[in-house]
Design a protein that fits this description.
By secondary structure, the protein is of the alpha/beta class. The chain contains eight helices and eight strands, in the order βαβαβαβαβαβαβαβα. The two termini are 21 Å apart. Belongs to the thiamine-phosphate synthase family.
Length: 211
């Protein structure tokens, strides 16, 4: 069983993080309590992803936070990342698992009940469920599912789920009440004046959730 904590999952956005950079944003967020960091940059080529990813890995070394790479298998392997996250349009989970091997964490985005129920727990370690709300950080997102939809998809997923899509500190209680193991955030941390303080606010709400 792979050990990872989905509770406060930061997804980096190069545009929002432009002021202080993705590496410094991640470092501050992890200091503030982020448990996982996903490198997502749809405009970057593999070599640029590897360069950023290696800098991230160095910055997060010794913190216990897990580094996940979005979509780019080659970069994830070259970086020595803790995991890979794929969407439904990227590649199938079996191919991804064959490429990354048994040890790396594999996350898969699911947007519908059918997709959640079809997840193979022998291949996939966690699901990213959403979008809960519409969000400008992902222009091509699917129809928002709300907290009722989140609860249905989480229940159908055979592996732990992290909620995503327009989520902020004030949504923590509802995310966990729906059965998710955490929330993935982008703009709630990226691009804020103080990413560490922004993360601490979310982490404080997570600590209030009954065990």
């Amino acid at each position: 069983m792979k050990a990872f904590d989905l509770s406060l999952y930061l997804v980096l956005d190069p545009n929002l993080c432009a002021q202080i950079g993705m590496v410094e944003t991640a470092r501050l967020a992890v200091t503030g309590g982020a448990t996982m960091v996903q490198l997502r940059d749809k405009r970057a080529g593999t070599s640029e992803m590897i360069q950023t990813g290696r800098a991230l890995k160095q910055a997060l070394g010794g913190t216990g936070a897990r580094l996940i790479v979005n979509d780019d298998v080659e970069a994830a392997i070259a970086i020595g990342a803790d995991g890979l996250h794929i969407g439904q349009e990227d590649m199938d989970a079996r191919t991804a698992r064959e490429l990354i091997g048994p040890e790396m964490i594999l996350g898969l985005s699911v947007e519908t009940e059918a997709l959640a129920a079809a997840v193979d727990p022998d291949l996939v370690d966690y699901t990213g469920v959403g979008p809960v709300f519409a969000t400008p950080t992902k222009a091509d997102h699917k129809q928002p599912i709300g907290f009722d939809g989140l609860a249905r998809l989480v229940q159908l997923s055979p592996v732990p789920s992290v909620a995503i899509g327009g989520l902020k500190a004030e949504h923590v209680a509802e995310v966990f009440a729906a059965g998710a193991k955490g929330l993935a955030v982008v703009s709630a941390i990226c691009g804020t004046p103080d990413p560490e303080a922004a993360t601490r606010r979310i982490a404080a709400e997570i600590r209030k959730v009954p065990a």
